[in-house]
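Example record used in the benchmark description.
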Amino acid sequence: MADMPIKISSPKDFWAGLIYLAIGAAAIWIGSHYRFGVAGRMGPGYFPFVLAGGLVAVGVVSFVRSFVIPGSRIGTIAWKPMLIVLSANLLFGFLLPRAGLVVALVALTLVSAAASREFRFEWRASLGLGVLVLFCALVFVKGLGVPMPIVGSWLEPYVPASWLF
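Model output (C-alpha cells):
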C-alpha cells in the first residue's frame, strides 16, 4: 500500500486545477501591493483578492477532484476557435477607441460566435445582441461612468454621441 503510485484519474481536471491555481496565485501576488481595506470600506486590492481567492479555491477543488473522480482524457486542442476568440478580443481592443463601444461589442460578439461550428446568423439573435449592446452602454458608460466612447473617433462626424443618450 505504501508503494502505490498516485494516479491522476482526470487529466482535464488536473490541468484545469493547476491553471486556476497559477492564475489565482499570480493575481494574489500582484494584488498584494494594493491596499486591502475591510468589507465596509474596501480598498483597491479587496475585490481582486476575493476573485483571486475564488480562483484558487476552484483550482484546489479541481486539482483534488482529478485524483478522486475518473474523467476523460484531454483531446486535441481546438486551435482555430481559440485563435478566433483571441483575435475577436484583440479586435475589440483596437476598435473601442476608434469605432466606439457599440461597434466594438458587435464585432466582438459576432467574431467570437463565428468560432463555433454551430454558429448561424439569425435575426432573432441580432435583436438580443442589440439589447446586450444597449445594456452595456447604459450600465458601463452612463451608470458607472466608465470612460469609454459610445461612438468612436471614426464615426463621430457621422453620429454625434449626444444623439444616442
